[in-house]
Specification:
The structure is a homodimer.
Chain A: E1 14-18, H1 24-33, E2 39-43, H2 55-71, E3 76-79, H3 82-87, H4 89-95, E4 100-101, H5 104-114, E5 119-124, H6 126-131, H7 133-141, E6 146-151, H8 155-161, H9 167-177, E7 187-191, H10 199-210, E8 215-218, H11 219-233, E9 246-250, H12 257-265, E10 271-274
Parallel strand pairs in A: 1-2, 1-3, 2-9, 3-4, 5-6, 5-7, 7-8, 9-10
């Protein structure tokens, strides 16, 4: 292929966006499944968080993020944000002729597959819980499944503060998980991209309060597996075999950007740029 | 006065803005000092929080908020947000020919007045701490004072979650206050409008960790006393003696708006409207 030709569709990057840096945990999962894909990540850090905001506001912000990624010529858009995946996919699909892959359907399906009792717990932001998106998605995969969703707003700031183990996160997580006790729940969905950072603590508390047979489902990991399946089926996997690049775009550059980003991504970031939407 | 005449300047409302609903704790303090003033409050709830965002972004948002209040014909603008008071007063004063009263200078002065040792602790958001605004303001009132500022990012979500007393806030507050121990600190500034909601817990922990002689300074209360002094000196207090009204404007209407707003304001809100900036 001559360098003057435009890249073929399969060689375009994947676009990923989130309200902030939490979605980098989804990029981490994508890297594990698809190490040679190039990724453009957009974190709307100037307007983070979305999880506490109203539906219309979130849809407006999501359209702006997707527009930016479209202009970056991506082959598909991964909505790494649970809140956006809960309220905006219809608007995104109506506006853009690109494949749009959210995190809620994959997470819901993985939970239905993992559950024997059909009783599924979901930890998420207030916005995601209020949307009812997880119960809806879970019901679409299993008519007998029952969903118990708990809003856990403190877990995002705990993850960002780096208080991931120890007394404070342990007590906060326990307070939320106790709301799921006594329901025969055997699968719990981490319904926010920040929660994998607290996975160790959440897993311990879930085992303690709900039992050690309970499966912990990371919606971001489930979405990454779906992206792999989608690209393979459509013949859209990148042809080059070398490791892909990650370009990070943020709408605000927080002071502790590097530290936070590394915590979510699990590797350091070479290319970061601030953009205005 | 005939109703067709424009209201005289003293009868115009006070404008108050904040990144979200926390600034209603400053409105509460204003109501205690100035019960007959009309107040227009703007909470930029679609872009809350500011405390984790960069300076340029915060200045841009603050100018938009002040522009809205100017169009609402207010007689003065109270910047209820510590983060904005830390980084944006110069830009606001350059742009608007209205009195601009922030919360940091009043809080700093009250702390200097309360302190004997000259060692002053400040609890604030990451953004306010990074700005260095409190040490600067405190130094401007006392050349011998020394400021110890601690970023306490978890306290905002704790206040919003309503976890204001009990083990989790107690442990989190203790972890932050311990960073002030051993410095002979005898005044601690609550440098964020959310913190008064946690005042009981913070006061108990401060007493326990730093001693019961330590003064707790609420910057919002200090600012309200300054507004009272300013309006009195300039002859700008409202002439009518009946109780003033509070009109609340928000850029996003969160689901639990009423509950949250009441927690900060201490009274229920009659007039609330969503606006686009």
């Amino acid at each position: 292929m001559s360098t003057s030709e435009p890249p073929s569709r399969q060689d375009l990057p994947l676009g990923v966006f989130d309200s902030g840096l939490g979605g980098l945990s989804v990029v981490r999962a994508l890297r594990a499944c698809l190490p040679n894909e190039n990724i453009v990540y957009l974190g709307d850090t100037a307007r983070v968080p979305y999880g506490t905001k109203g539906k219309d506001t979130v849809v407006r912000y999501a359209l702006a993020c997707a527009q930016y990624l479209k202009q970056s010529q991506v082959k598909a858009i991964v909505v790494a944000c649970n809140t956006v995946s809960a309220v905006a996919p219809a608007a995104l699909r109506a506006e853009f002729d690109l494949p749009i892959i959210g995190v809620i359907e994959p997470g819901a399906r993985a939970a239905v597959e993992a559950s024997v009792t059909g009783k599924i717990g979901v930890l998420a932001t207030a916005g995601t819980v209020a949307s009812g998106a997880y119960p809806r998605a879970i019901a679409s995969f299993s008519t007998r499944a029952e969903t118990f969703a708990v809003a856990a707003p403190l877990l995002v700031p705990l993850a960002e503060e780096g208080w991931t183990t120890g007394e404070v996160p342990e007590l906060a997580v326990t307070r939320y998980i106790k709301r799921l006790a006594g329901q025969a729940i055997d699968a719990v969905v981490l319904g926010c991209t920040h929660y994998p950072i607290l996975r160790e603590t959440i897993a311990r508390v879930v085992q303690q309060e709900l039992g050690d047979h309970v499966a912990l489902i990371d919606s971001g990991e489930a979405a990454a597996r779906d992206v792999l399946a989608f690209l393979s089926l459509r013949g859209l996997r990148r042809s080059a075999k070398e490791s892909g690049t990650i370009h990070v775009r943020v709408t605000d550059l927080p002071g502790n950007f590097g530290e936070l980003a590394t915590r979510f991504l699990g590797e350091s970031i070479a290319h970061v740029k601030q953009v205005d939407l």
